[in-house]
Write a structure and sequence with these properties.
This protein has about 270 residues and is an alpha+beta fold. The protein folds into two domains: about 140 residues, Cytidine Deaminase, domain 2, CATH 3.40.140.10; about 120 residues. It is about 30% helix and about 25% strand. It contains seven helices and twelve strands. A four-stranded antiparallel beta sheet has the order 1-4-2-3. The structure holds zinc ion. The site of zinc ion has 6 residues, from helix 3.
Length: about 270
């Protein structure tokens, strides 16, 4: 019953199955959140929540839920942890966040949470998760900074699109199992390319989106390689159709699409 949020609105990206204990920092964050949960003051909901948040500078801060009889004055664990981060480091970005929650009396195991049951959100591996509430998602969002202003603008746009199921950023770090595609760069060497976003349009269609502010020499090569990658994957299975979409900020600013369908129409012909 915990989830791990990394960076830009991608929670929960993982059920955080800690049977892989190699990420010692993540394991520490889980312990910190589990411990913080036991400090919760939750006489009304009897649902104890603990959070651990890691800043980009490497600080780890914890928080628990604190309920008060005027419910508006209650503090959620995520907010508590993030506010502690800000108190210590100022207004900085969150790198990742671990959330642990369960009713009073239930012990959250560190290595195997298969046996813990609570009606919550199911992750792709069918583990049951606690999920940040809307209020906390807003708080998390405000301390998640994209790699560029345009990425943030696009995330904000997608968040408000009713014609997509979900989206996620492709993170270039090992914990998030990023999509990495090899391509031949303009100097003839094999290099790595990480597309920026995944957008799940419906149960059968996923767009892989490249958002570009300032264009660089290899961008066209990367996107051609992505298109080929989609073609290859689509030829090998028919469960999900992968499509590549290249969005230039300049064009985006000119046309300002109102929903994702409109964005697809505008940008699918690019390159
Ligand atoms: Zn909350």
């Amino acid at each position: 019953m915990f989830s791990i949020a990394q960076g830009l609105l991608s929670f929960p990206v993982s059920c955080g199955n800690l049977r892989d204990m190699s990420d010692t920092r993540l394991v520490a964050m889980f312990s910190i959140a589990t411990d913080a949960r036991l400090k919760a003051q939750a006489p009304y909901s009897n649902f104890l929540v603990g959070a651990a948040v890691e800043s980009h500078a490497g600080g780890i801060y914890r928080g628990c839920n604190v309920e008060r009889c005027s419910h508006t004055q209650s503090t959620h664990a995520e907010q508590n942890a993030i506010d502690t981060m800000i108190t210590n480091e100022g207004s900085v970005a969150i790198k990742r966040l671990v959330l642990v929650g369960a009713p009073l009396g239930i012990k959250v195991p560190i290595e195997n949470h298969d046996s813990v049951h609570h009606p919550a959100v199911l992750c792709p591996c069918n583990h049951q998760l606690v999920w940040p509430c809307g209020h906390c998602r807003q708080i998390i969002w405000e301390n998640c900074f994209g790699d560029s202003d345009f990425e943030l603008e696009f995330s904000n746009f997608i968040e408000g699109c009713n014609d997509v199921i979900s989206f996620s950023k492709n993170f270039q770090n090992k914990e998030a199992s990023a999509l990495r595609i090899e391509y031949k760069n303009s100097e003839g060497f094999i290099a790595n390319y990480y597309p920026v976003f995944f957008v799940k349009k419906d149960d059968k269609t996923v767009y892989i989106v490249e958002t570009k502010g300032r264009e660089e020499e290899d961008d066209k090569l990367k996107f051609e390689r992505l298109r080929l990658w989609c073609e290859d994957v689509n030829n090998r299975q028919n469960r999900i159709a992968y499509k590549a979409l290249y969005i230039k900020q300049e064009e985006w600013d000119k046309y300002k699409p109102k929903n994702f369908d409109e964005a697809v129409k505008l940008f699918e012909k690019q390159y």
